Amino acid sequence: MKIEILTKNDNREVQNSIISQIRDLINYKNLEPGDKLPSERMLSEKFGVSRSNIRETIQKLEFYGLLKSMPQSGTFVANIGGVALNGMIDDILRLEDPDFKSLVETRILLELKISALAAVRRSESDLKQIEEALQAYSEKVLNGQDAVQEDLLFHLAIAKAAGNSTLNTLMLMITPEIITNFETYHVCDKNQARAGIQEHTDIFEAIKEQDPIKVKEKMNIHFNILYQYCNAEE
Q1: Do 105 and 205 fall within a single domain?
Q2: What's the CATH number where 43 sits?
Q3: What is the structure's pLDDT at 142?
Q4: Which of 139, 180, 184, 175 is closest to 157 using CA atoms?
Q5: Of 37, 70, 94, which closes a domain?
Q6: In the Cβ-directed half-sphere of 57, how many Cα atoms lie within 13 Å?
Q7: For the ranges 10-14, 139-143, 176-180, which has the lowest average pLDDT?
Q8: Model pLDDT, residue 3
Q9: End-to-end CA distance of the chain
Q10: Range of 49's domain?
Q11: Which pairs with CB-CB distance under 8 Å and at least 24 residues apart come from 144-149?
Q12: Nearest CA to 224 among 194, 192, 202?
């Protein structure tokens, strides 16, 4: 049994090595698009890495749609053609962890669209969840407590109300990294957090009124500090 303690960079290197070797299996015709992948144990022995490394890498390739797990059958190479598969693997190997600026820009682009959809599609149940998240945020701020997590849960409630599972998934993906970086870079001070109560309230009211234009205007105002951060980094 292999026990490995890896840093984030080391783990990325191991995963990239496994991805490259899986690509070699495909390119040398040991695997074809649509073929079943060897077991985790076999790949672990062949590549000289732990089964947990194999499992994590398979999950990563599944996320990008290059592998597909079938219950009771195993994991298969996506049937998308060798050229497309090689090109996508090249892109995955070049990927780097997103920096804070790229996360902020992504969040802004997503939420402007999400908030407009939420205004149009929200249900009464969605509205209740957004309001509850707003109240939780306000209570924390007024008590002088850090409310970064409550802030983002408010925005996730809006994402859910947008009724688009892909946009919701993207928000869920970037949220943990945003929480970590907000705390690291101290993006929001207490004064900004207090102003955020009114900004959040304005966003909530626009969604309640089902006014997509107004909610985008209010969201832009809310993102003013983030816009300043992005511009300062350029």
Answers
A1: yes
A2: 1.10.10.10
A3: 93
A4: 175
A5: 94
A6: 27
A7: 176-180
A8: 41
A9: 48
A10: 8-94
A11: 144/190, 146/183, 147/193, 147/196, 148/179, 148/182, 148/183, 148/188, 149/179
A12: 192
